[in-house]
Input
Amino acid sequence: MTDDPNPRPAAARWGATPADDNEKLSEQALRASREQLAAALAANQKILDNSHDVICTLDRQGVFLRVSRHVERMWGYRPEEMVGRLYLDFLHPDDREKTMEHAEILALGEPLNGFMNRFLHRDGSIVPVMWSSVWSESDRTTFAVGRDMRDHVAAEEKLRQAQKMEAVGRLSGGIAHDFNNLLTVVIGATETLAEALAADPDLAPVAQVALEAAERGAELVSQLMSVSRTQSLTPRTVNCNRFLEALLPILTRTFSKDIEVRMVAAADEVCCLADPTQLTSAMLNLCINARDAMPGGGRLTLRAVRAGDGVVLSVEDTGEGMSAQTQARALEPFFTTKPEGKGSGLGLSMVYGFAVQSGGRLEIDSAEGSGTRIALCLPATTDCAELPLGAAPAAVLARGLKVLLVEDDDLVRGQVLRQLAALGCEVRSCANGHDALDVLASGVGVDLMMTDINMPGGLNGRQLADHARLLDPRLPILFTSGHTEDPVLRSVGHDPLAAFLAKPYRRAELARKLAELTPERA
Ligand SMILES: Nc1ncnc2c1ncn2[C@@H]1O[C@H](COP(=O)(O)OP(=O)(O)O)[C@@H](O)[C@H]1O
Ligand SMILES: [Mg+2]
Output
């Protein structure tokens, strides 16, 4: 309108209408259209100001003409610091070439969507951006919308990490399963040998060494099962403050004096649901990592906090922290930055597996040079009454117990049979479920059935148990497995006459389970 070389008087051009009416009308129209324009501009500005994408215009040389306000949150620069400067100045140097190629294609006039490059935030961090842009020849301007892809890329990375952990978990779970059966035999047989040789001064130590090595193997298998989330867990109520209080003296006693260990308790009584033994081992793992990260001393903080519907048990240190590369791989089994013989690389992967299997998660917060905080998030429970762990019943309770043993693996069956016999049990053994049902149906008295869960031949342990209970509804059943199959374990948890024993096990554990299932003998 300001371009009009002769804007007034309007009446001269519009003739027929009386002059002042005319003037009034056009003034009204003018005001109305000005207001419309102002409203439209304000609306545009609102869109620009509130968009979480960066909206910008650039000239032919790639100099910023206008940049929307959100850029400050995305790249750390204010719009006025960017206007007049080159797009390339803010770009990650490695992405220059492909961005310039992209600009050439853009100049041909085709709108381009989905182009990704990386910008450098003022603080030096990398910000991946996805662009939708178009070059307008008539305006000699590029109109571009850049979307912050940080969250997206982080989520993708997390997913990739989760898939990787899934794969290594399955692999280690498979290995652990097979080794479990082998070690059940080795430990049992060596235990028998060690007892028989106890009086022989030359051979007793040899048997002892073999037993210790087999037990170390079992421990490694148990670690692998934590990694693969197939560890057999018995979740109980854990009072978090009391749990950390119990941990504290162990740490102060074993860590060197230049590490200050302190605890920040939760304000209220908070309790979580977790397997106490495994939780202790997980927290010790985190504390040992923290200690290792502070060779010159520092401060280790144990903290319990309630967070939403969970609790967080965290270990913080003022140590060397982790580089981005270390952090990206820290959860991988066997990844370690420690010298040969010092680190197994299984610590964090076990803690992670334990957290996930317990229905929680693990959070790592670390920066090179400024310490690490690792948080174990676990489901909370409002029922804070801790169950007493109960005194272990004596092995002698198993004496005379009539046990029906069902196990398809000949080696394992022979071994368990010897263990049961050594406890004084009277044992009938079967290699499959059908034979076991025949024994039960024959009416020979059976006080307890002990069965493997994974068995071929049409009847697995659970199915066998269901059939057996039709014959004897009050038959106590002890399930064993090298794997902790969830569905079966859940049904065991609801069955007061059933228990589960994870392979491999020591004779004492077997005795304890047998006694647990036959309380009337106590
Ligand atoms: N608190 C920590 N501070 C610094 N680095 C850590 C910390 N915890 C773990 N890490 C890093 O993660 C790696 C893997 O840890 P972990 O799985 O426990 O195996 P290991 O302790 O046997 O090396 C360590 O080697 C170390 O590089
Ligand atoms: Mg460790």
Notes: The longest strand covers residues 126-136.
